[in-house]
Automatic annotation (TrEMBL):
This is Endoplasmic reticulum oxidoreductase 1 beta. It is a peripheral membrane protein. The active site is at C393, C396. The gene is ERO1B. Its main location: endoplasmic reticulum. Residues 1-33 form the signal peptide. The lineage of its organism: Eukaryota, Metazoa, Chordata, Craniata, Vertebrata.
Length: 467
């Protein structure tokens, strides 16, 4: 393989791409050979996830993300980095995020988190609708006085509840709505010391590892030798389940983001017209076993593990959304009903998956030790959500915050099983609840994972076709 690569480098400029593509088919073979079978720490095989995602989940989750309720996300991209001096923002054009004009945000969404619209409404009925929606959040306002009082209790409970993420204050003047469909996650050119510092802080300061291990966790860190991959996974297997899970979640998120960038890469720009597409060379650089000293396929397996975790969370939270008082409220009755129908359909699919991750195996030791470990787990992840405010590229920060919050919401769901089971059928509860921002982040984060696995299959086909 190395001699073939050398020949490719020495090839004439006109034949470079052709030679490179000829090599790609053979490069996929070792990746494919290692990316198969049962995942560690669960009883699920990769092939079953591929089929389930391709034929059941991916088409539906794509449609759901296009719905108004899920396409508008309120985020504060101006929060200062809490850990180090600002490295400076990315000035590349593709790093920019275009906020959504207030007039474009559906009335029900807007009224649920702000008073601004109701003050400016001209139509009396619109004013009344906005005021009612504002009192109840982004939830259908046709509720009894008893239910409204319960929502007040909900708010008090939520304010005191422990979260896995540092949540943005939606009332901040710096918080703006972003249309996720108009600001897709893709390669922006953001890289270098600033990006490295973010991931290095995530891996080295927040992931668990024995103090005796000096090998860097950050895959972007310079390699120290040929045995790095073997020694790394040797000590990882020596950690307890919870700490292994934590690392795999972070690695899976990193892999997913990298796959999005490889699949939506700026290939060329002619007369100001960009052409985005799959960059197979970049994919090889990040995941080829030889290029990554055997770690590429292991990283890709962490993507599947993360997918299982969030899939499990969706199956667990289904009873919450099946309650009659939980609506995906935008103000458009027909759209809202169709969105909830599609969401419940996806939940039915998630519950039908036969090989879910068993979260009950986590934090199952003695009560005191388990509680302490769970709190440490939560605080480490919450810290990572705060690091997202240190990302210098606005578009990268947007999607980093959203996907981190989505995973944090999934963890919140997994460890709130009793609260979800105890929800009453026809009235709000003082217990478990999700804000609209958490719901939007949860669905879009899982949608990103579903897309990543689908793109992995696309890269597989691209490489196979070059053989």
């Amino acid at each position: 393989m190395s001699s073939a690569r050398g020949a490719a480098r020495r090839a004439a400029p006109g034949t470079g791409l052709a030679v490179h593509l000829l090599l790609l088919g053979s490069i996929w073979s070792p990746v494919e050979a290692q990316l198969t079978g049962v995942l560690d720490d669960c009883l699920c095989d990769i092939e079953s996830i591929d089929d389930f995602n391709t034929y059941k989940i991916f088409p539906k989750i794509q449609k759901l993300q296009e719905r108004d309720y899920f396409r508008y996300y309120k985020v504060n991209l101006k929060r200062p980095c809490p850990f180090w001096a600002d490295d400076g923002h990315c000035s590349i054009r593709d790093c920019h995020v275009e906020p959504c004009p207030e007039s474009k945000v559906p009335i029900g969404i807007k009224a649920g988190s702000s008073n601004k619209y109701s003050k400016r409404a001209n139509n009396t009925k619109e004013l009344e609708d906005c005021e009612q929606a504002n009192k109840l959040g982004a939830i259908n306002s046709t509720l009894s006085n008893q239910s409204k009082e319960a929502f007040i209790d909900w708010a008090r409970y939520d304010d005191s509840q422990d979260h896995f993420c540092e949540l943005d204050d939606e009332r901040s003047p710096d918080a703006q709505y972003v249309d996720l469909l108009l600001n897709p996650e893709r390669y922006t050119g953001y890289k270098g010391p600033s990006a490295w510092r973010v991931w290095n802080s995530i891996y080295e300061e927040n992931c668990f590892k024995p103090r005796s291990v000096y090998r860097p966790l950050n895959p972007l860190a310079p390699s120290r030798g040929e045995d790095d991959g073997e020694s790394f996974y040797t000590w990882l297997e020596g950690l307890c389940l919870e700490k292994r899970v934590f690392y795999k979640l972070i690695s899976g998120l990193h892999v997913s983001i990298n796959l999005h960038l490889c699949a939506n890469y700026l290939l060329e720009e002619t007369w100001g017209k960009p052409r985005w597409g799959h960059n197979v060379k970049e994919f090889i650089h990040r995941f080829d076993p030889i290029e990554t000293k055997g770690e590429g396929p292991r990283r890709l397996k962490n993507l599947y593990f993360l997918y299982l975790i969030e899939l499990r969370a969706l199956s667990k939270v289904a009873p919450y959304f099946e309650r009659s008082f939980v609506d995906l409220y935008t103000g458009n009755v027909q759209e809202d009903a169709e969105s909830k129908t599609l969401l419940l359909d996806i939940f039915r699919d998630t519950k039908s998956f036969p090989m879910h991750f068993d979260e009950k195996s986590m934090f199952a030791g003695d009560k005191k030790g388990a509680k302490s470990l769970k709190e440490e787990f939560r605080l480490h992840f919450k810290n990572i959500s705060r690091i997202m405010d240190c990302v210098g590229c606005d578009k990268c920060r947007l999607w980093g915050k959203l996907q981190t919050q989505g995973l944090g919401t999934a963890l919140k769901i997994l460890f709130s099983e009793k609260e979800i089971q105890n929800l009453p059928e026809n009235s709000p509860s003082k217990g478990f609840q999700l804000t609209r921002q958490e719901i939007v982040a949860l669905i879009n984060a899982f949608g990103r994972l579903s897309t990543s696995i689908k793109e992995l299959q696309n890269f597989k086909l691209l490489l196979q076709h070059t053989r």
